[in-house]
Design goal:
alpha/beta, single chain, globular, eight-stranded parallel barrel, 315 residues
């Protein structure tokens, strides 16, 4: 059994790509997209007709609607290939606007429903700002399920659990990147790998907290830099993995054991934690890594949304 098949025994494997033509070979349950992945996909020759056709069909409509229709088109293609759910992201430029996020999410769901897609097969991706988490809470009450992304801090995970969001995506690789950069020449790769990787430690803490306190929100580790980070989180509810790393797992026969255990977490002596808005903002502010990576992630997704708009305008 290769490592990918072994991992699927403990964890739901999700493909992190907008390139739906790659999906079949890895047979993931779910798939996630974001503005950067869609931008990357539409610049490939094989997706040019899909972009042109979508833009031509909705020419004259507001740019934000054309973008949403393009995202939904990709999502529908992905759903034709996988048995589970696809995550589609709300424009990152709305990350600090609760009402606008809710409205955009509702439109995305309506567009999917118009294509005959059941509401339970779509997760709306929203940045884990305080405003984003409040939007997700409102959406969940309406039966629209959410995936809270750009999650770097424990306080973000706690607030998402309180909001009863469907799923969170803590970013393993970007946490690792920050600590490695901070350490500079003193970084010891071997000593900070596997269970000692700061990104792995973050997801492990969140997973154990959720299982200990019976929080139903699913934990999906994301943004991996190497296979070691993935194998160190075997047993996490879900892991979303880029095609290159899925290929590495499929090519390896090395043994893989479960690393995270829900039953063990239930008996851990952990403190109960809750946050109101002021407490959340202070806790996030105290975490330099999370503050920087959240802001950087929103800026990067917003910049890629602008690039996508320019591509559309050029057609």
């Amino acid at each position: 059994m290769n490592q990918l098949d072994a991992l699927k025994q403990f964890t739901t494997v999700v493909a992190d790509t907008g390139d739906f033509k790659q999906l079949a070979q890895f047979q993931p349950q779910d798939a996630t997209t974001n503005p950067s992945l869609i931008l990357k996909a539409v610049q490939k020759p094989e997706y040019a007709p899909l972009l042109q056709e979508t833009v031509a069909r909705w020419k004259g409509r507001a740019m934000d609607e054309v973008i949403d229709r393009l995202l939904v088109r990709f999502g529908c293609e992905i759903l034709a290939t996988i048995p589970g759910r696809v995550s589609t992201e709300v424009d990152a430029r709305l990350s600090f606007d609760t009402d606008a996020t809710v409205a955009r999410a509702e439109r995305i769901i309506e567009l999917y429903q118009a294509e005959g897609v059941h509401i339970d097969r779509v997760l709306i991706k929203i940045a884990s700002t305080w405003e984003g988490i409040q939007a997700a809470e409102k959406l969940e009450r309406k039966g629209i399920h959410t995936n809270l992304t750009l999650l770097f801090a424990f306080c973000q995970a706690v607030a998402c659990g309180q909001a009863k969001v469907q799923l969170i995506s803590p970013f393993v690789g970007r946490i690792y990147d920050w600590y490695k950069k901070q350490a500079g020449a003193s970084w010891d790769e071997a000593a900070r790998s596997g269970a000692n990787d700061p990104g792995v430690q973050s997801v492990t803490q969140i997973y154990n907290h959720y299982k200990r306190f019976g929080i139903a929100t699913e934990v999906m580790g994301a943004s991996f830099r190497n296979v070691g980070q993935i194998t160190a989180l075997a047993g996490c509810d879900l892991l979303t993995i880029a095609p290159e790393l899925l290929a590495q797992l499929a090519a390896s026969d090395a043994p893989l054991e479960r690393a995270l255990h829900a039953d063990a977490a239930k008996s851990m002596d952990l403190p109960a934690v809750n946050y109101d808005e002021a407490g959340f903002r202070f806790a996030l502010n105290e975490d330099a890594m999370a503050t920087e990576k959240l802001a950087e992630g929103i800026r990067a997704f917003a910049a890629d949304a602008v690039k996508l708009e320019k591509l559309i305008l050029a057609l």
